[in-house]
Amino acid sequence: MTAPDPFSLPPAPPAERRSPLPLIIGGGIVGLLLIVIGAGALAFTLLSQRASAIPELLPAETQIYAAITPNLSDLPNIDRLRRAFPETFDYQNTDETADFLQERFGVTFADDIAPWIGAEAAVAVYGLPIDQLGGAMGESANPFNPPATLDPLEDVDLSNANVLLIAAARDQRAAQAFLDKQRAFREGQGERFTSNTANGVTIYASESDETPFAAFALARNMVVFASNAASITKLIEQRSESALARNAQFQAVTQSLPNDRIGTIYIAGEALARFFDSLFEAGSLDESNPSIADARSAAQAMQGVGFTMAVIDSGLRFDAVTVFDQTRLSSELREQLSSFRPTVSPERAGEVSSAAIGVFSFAIPADWGERLRDQLDSAPETANALRDLEGNLGIDLDRDLFRWFHGEAVIAVLPNESAEAPVGGYFALRVADQAAAERGMQRLSELAEDLTGIRFQATSLGRAQVQAVEEGDIFFGYGFNGNDLVIAVGRQAMEAAFGAEQKLASFATYTNALKALPSPNSGVLYVNLNAARDLANRLGNDPIDPDTEQRLAPFRAITSSGTVGIDNRGAVRGTLLLSIEP
């Protein structure tokens, strides 16, 4: 007797024959919708659910966690990156990858890994002896202990450290076939394996302890390689409530990171705090220094550090965030962090010439001189030395410098046509009290004249007058462009400070980069890579190799900035953008 088909429908009564065209059209529409929905679901899985499952499998005490989306070819804006990084973005087909996989595992990416690898891959580390690492690194700075300096980790016991490489498997059979093939290859090379079972999962472990891939298994829909079998067993038996994903520090850091990331690195705050403490215990840091003491206090309140990478329409963006538990910060330290870096207007760097090689805008706090004097006065020897210096030079630092030398500033490095001085630059500070700044600069220039014998002369610069020392192609001077104090090296740099023909604010590479940076921010660092390469060609005895020049050509600029102090979540952020041509 034939068993009934559980998927068959009961017989239907006879019906009139109808045209199949509506069913064909309807089926085609449904099929098309399924394809669209399926493609959308796949894209969503690849692009938005980045390493969402792996933290559920790791213990809460994980110290370092790094994840990336392995299917880079499916990312948006990938074409320009593939042109800029052909080996990186075609890593599956490079000779280096092929040689490593063949020599180490006897497999190929296309045949043995591509059929099963999913949208998540990560490396996790826990069990590192942080105290020993800090102590060893502290001793390595000791010139009286050369062996430690040469190999600071030689005496560190790493036997309890756990390192895992985890990749999601979308095809269990293909993943198991890969593990079986690489095991057979390694056995053919003389390696021997033992096996044990945990919750129905077979874990293989090498009898050799000289490899970071000693143990492996297909567990919880993941291919796992680990430094020991115990860490895989722990992954298999990991309870949700005690997983890394439920760790408050991990949540605080990852929730503060950008959502468009394709790669993430997390370092636990507890590990960083212990490492910092071990440096003090090893005598590498002096807690009597107020700044060092503040840094140690901040480390104790640190929840963690996170780094991410994202592909955007103008290039490759890197973000970093440090998150503090504000309840563990003293009110004084919290205030210092909140006002650590004043806001700088975005126009400050944008006013520089677009021909600049590099630009750095920042703010000098109004109380920097007071803080410096307080710190120096805290120790009798430095306080006496400062008073002697002022007496010998005949200056009053408070009057001649500290009271007026603050505000928004910018440093610009520019190319110079002079063969003797191919690079020039200037420092510009927007002062609040121009009269005090003029008096202060007059006194400081007179002091420089007395000490060096040079003489500043009034020099015309178009309609402006500046004070300068000029001899041949050598030019050094200062002047005031409105409320801007300008100190320049090179006449061309001084001229650019008083009026650039084309400003950076009109340069698309710079304006597009600003859109990717935090706003408001504490200033901008901008490096024009095209100008830097031109300068390198001018200064070098030999031109840049054509192949190297071709490889570097897509990279336009590096731009970086950070947030102003600490935000409401206790986070301090920084962003770096590598601009790549379309």
List descriptors:
38% helix; alpha+beta; 582 residues; globular; disordered N terminus; 22 helices
Sum this structure up briefly:
Among the domains are: 48-245, no CATH class; 247-337 and 572-582, no CATH class. The chain is built from 22 helices and 20 strands.
What count of helical segments does DSSP give?
Answer: 22
Q: If you compute it from the alpha carbons, what radius of gyration comes out, rounded to the nearest whole angstrom?
A: 31 Å
Task: Indicate the low-confidence ranges by residue numbers.
Answer: 1-51, 140-152
Number of strand segments: 20
- Tertiary shape: globular
Describe this entry's structure for a reader.
- Keywords: Membrane, Transmembrane, Transmembrane helix.
- Pfam families: DUF3352.
- This is DUF3352 domain-containing protein.
- InterPro entries: DUF3352.
- By secondary structure, this protein is an alpha+beta fold.
- Among the domains are: 48-245, no CATH class; 247-337 and 572-582, no CATH class.
- It has 22 helices and 20 strands.
- The chain has a 20-stranded antiparallel sheet, with helices on both faces.
- A hairpin with a 2-residue loop joins strand 15 (464-471) and strand 16 (474-481).
- The radius of gyration is 31 Å and the shape is globular.
